[in-house]
Amino acid sequence: xxxxxxxxxxxxxxxxxxxxxxxxxxxxxxxxxxxxxxxxxxxxxxxxxxxxxxxxxxxxxxxxxxxxxxxxxxxxxxxxxxxxxxxxxxxxxxxxxxxxxxxxxxxxxxxxxxxxxxxxxxxxxxxxxxxxxxxxxxxxxxxxxxxxxxxxxxxxxxxxxxxxxxxx
Length: 168
Hints:
Layout: H1 5-28, H2 36-58, H3 63-92, H4 105-111, H5 114-123, H6 126-129, E1 134-135, E2 138-139, H7 140-160
Antiparallel strand pairs: 1-2
Main location: membrane
Protein name: Disulfide bond formation protein B
Cytoplasmic side: 1-8, 162-168
């Protein structure tokens, strides 16, 4: 099977839908409230999915456009990888080193400038260090980091692969 650009873009859209669907299942069915870092991870995944959807619909012929879409998707999912890595690091801290819990994301967005909100959220808080879901002994941020890293590898492959012109 040939992994053409459009097929890989569709696969990336599907991975985004699966990831967000699972996050919404955990939130609305299992009752796990997402911490601010979880929400920011979702934003990167949604962004990558939307970029891949545009790439799928556009189906560019030019390798420059293909690389442009792949670059944007890589940046977006790279954001999720970075935030998930920070989340895993926060959960690995000893209890006395965990930052204190701060105000909720809704309050921060309403009360502070966006730059300050980003700084506050990305620094993490005590609620982000709580492990409230595990699978095979690993927390949700660990599984998210693995999932996002796999998607990042696909995006990087899409960015750097050879787009040779097929002559008929």
